[in-house]
């Protein structure tokens, strides 16, 4: 088999830097071609197929941004990285918005440069088999909103830029993050998701950056921490707005320096990962209110991908219903039930404040309640009367005549508890407060309803 040497185009009007880049590429056994101006860079791009392009931002007769635009039109599959003046985040951000996969700041550190080149060639290689094995099917929805989102995801997957995924609770933000990872060059490496709201503040540093055995009471063995677990891959920071301010500073530092220092350790450890983040809150508003650091906001929010709420893409509901029922059928080892026309119409009319997660809950319950493997409107327990309206607090859906009162009451209890847990991101203390009950009482009910997730040592004697 003939292995061709990857071709890299270097565009820089500074002779010294150009030479450094060419030498580095040569040492990496790559075939480097250099251009000293935007015009020459454009001409070379038009004339030959390159696997990668590194361009300076200042090119004398234009900017690196002009070259990225040109490359996007002529060689859309070719990854481009930019070299920026130190501290010029604005330019770097602009370049990534236009499609550059990453940037490096001057003075150019050789380790970082090599990493940048390797990442770019990785993108080039994975780009060659663009159909990426059915991964995209994991995001159900063919309507215009989802089609546009999927197209954006395909582009974003190639880049290394941090992405802020916005959208309501349960709309599919984590699924989108997984797809961005799964379609990108890091897909063979770990995808690590963390719910920032679920980690106690005092444990956060060690959870993120790891610790050394004995560095604090309770540190009985070394711990790698999430950053190092995700090394080479993607770290997904869910509910990033819940990070306390002191942790935001440390996170910013880790992202900027691409290093972490485990608790109790004196040396820094290099990490190479892509950061994706999400929150159901308005991150801009959190920043304006002083709860989210501005510098971290701009660092994470280079590009935004918005997941629309389910009520704005009702055309996707039938496909989602089919997908969820098939999945439940597989899990329960029974054929999935059919959905009657009226039930489907009721679902398409409902506004789903809890989005796809709520649809899953509704269908799971309906599948338990339905008879002869057919789901009818009564099994859905949607708010009676105005199907399009959001259920008012305290409004109870009617009991299906065949459902025993005990089961009905238990179902209401379960839904109310799940709603409170969803709203508080499974913070049980906050959920108990919301429900007007003690923590112990909530714990007891969770156990009774088999909703407890991790309470091995639970004391249910209430
Ligand atoms: N387009 C979709 N296709 C298939 N399943 C989906 C889709 N969107 C969401 N889901 C499913 O809905 C549930 C909620 O999705 P996910 O956890 O990604 O939402 P989220 O926006 O991250 O929620 P939260 O804000 O609460 O963290 C998951 O079980 C997920 O698999």
Topology:
Elements: E1 7-11, H1 15-27, E2 31-35, H2 38-47, E3 52-56, H3 64-74, E4 80-84, H4 89-98, E5 102-105, H5 110-128, H6 144-158, E6 163-166, H7 173-182, E7 191-195, H8 204-209, H9 226-229, E8 234-238, H10 245-257, E9 259-260, E10 269-270, E11 274-279, H11 283-288, H12 294-300, E12 303-306, H13 317-332, E13 338-339, H14 341-349, H15 355-369, E14 374-375, H16 377-380, H17 405-423, H18 428-435, H19 439-448
Parallel strand pairs: 1-2, 1-3, 3-4, 4-5, 6-11, 6-12, 7-8, 8-11, 13-14
Antiparallel strand pairs: 9-10
This protein binds adenosine-5'-triphosphate.
Structure description:
With 462 residues, the chain is an alpha/beta fold. It has helices at residues 15-27, 38-47, 64-74, 89-98, 110-128, 144-158, 173-182, 204-209, 226-229, 245-257, 283-288, 294-300, 317-332, 341-349, 355-369, 377-380, 405-423, 428-435, 439-448, and strands at residues 7-11, 31-35, 52-56, 80-84, 102-105, 163-166, 191-195, 234-238, 259-260, 269-270, 274-279, 303-306, 338-339, 374-375. A five-stranded parallel beta sheet has the order 2-1-3-4-5, sandwiched between helices. A five-stranded parallel beta sheet has the order 7-8-11-6-12. A two-stranded antiparallel sheet has the order 9-10. The chain is globular. The protein binds adenosine-5'-triphosphate (ATP).
């Amino acid at each position: 088999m003939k292995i061709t040497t990857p071709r890299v185009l270097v565009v820089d009007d500074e002779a010294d830097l150009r030479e450094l880049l060419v030498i580095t590429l040569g040492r990496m056994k790559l075939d480097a071609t250099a251009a000293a101006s935007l015009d020459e860079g454009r001409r070379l791009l038009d004339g030959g197929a390159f696997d990668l392009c590194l361009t300076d931002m200042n090119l004398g007769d234009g900017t690196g941004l002009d070259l990225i635009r040109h490359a996007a039109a002529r060689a859309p599959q070719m990854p481009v990285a930019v070299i920026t003046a130190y501290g010029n985040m604005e330019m770097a951000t602009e370049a990534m918005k236009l499609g550059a996969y990453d940037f490096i700041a001057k003075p150019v550190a050789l380790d970082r440069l090599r990493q940048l080149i390797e990442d770019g060639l990785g993108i080039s290689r994975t780009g060659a088999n663009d159909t990426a094995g059915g991964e995209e099917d994991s995001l159900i929805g063919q309507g215009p909103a989802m089609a546009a989102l999927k197209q954006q995801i395909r582009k974003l997957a190639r880049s290394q830029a941090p992405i802020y995924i916005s959208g309501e609770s349960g709309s599919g933000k984590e699924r989108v993050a997984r797809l961005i990872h799964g379609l990108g060059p890091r897909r063979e490496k770990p995808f690590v998701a963390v719910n920032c709201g679920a980690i106690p503040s005092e444990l956060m540093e060690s959870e993120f950056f790891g610790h050394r055995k004995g560095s604090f009471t309770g540190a009985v063995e070394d711990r790698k921490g999430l950053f190092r677990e995700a090394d080479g891959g993607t770290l997904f920071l869910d509910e990033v707005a819940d990070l306390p301010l002191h942790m935001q500073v440390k996170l910013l530092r880790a992202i900027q320096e691409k290093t972490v220092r485990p608790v109790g350790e004196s040396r820094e450890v290099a990490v190479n990962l892509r950061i994706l983040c999400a929150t159901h809150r308005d991150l801009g508003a959190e920043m304006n209110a002083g709860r989210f650091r501005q510098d971290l906001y701009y660092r994470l929010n280079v590009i935004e991908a918005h997941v629309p709420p389910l009520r704005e893409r009702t055309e996707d509901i039938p496909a989602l219903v089919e997908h969820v029922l098939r999945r439940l059928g597989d899990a329960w080892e029974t054929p999935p039930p059919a959905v009657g026309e009226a039930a489907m119409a009721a679902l398409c009319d409902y506004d789903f404040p809890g989005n796809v997660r709520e649809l899953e809950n509704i269908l799971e319950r309906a599948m338990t309640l339905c008879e002869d493997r057919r789901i009818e409107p009564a099994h859905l327990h949607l708010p009676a009367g105005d199907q399009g309206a959001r259920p008012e607090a305290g409004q109870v859906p009617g009991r299906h005549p065949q459902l025993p009162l005990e089961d009905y009451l238990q179902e209401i209890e379960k839904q109310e508890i799940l709603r409170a847990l969803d709203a508080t991101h499974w913070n049980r203390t906050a959920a108990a407060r919301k429900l007007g009950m003690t923590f112990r009482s909530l714990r007891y009910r969770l156990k009774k309803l088999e909703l407890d997730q991790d309470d091995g040592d639970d004391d249910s004697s209430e």
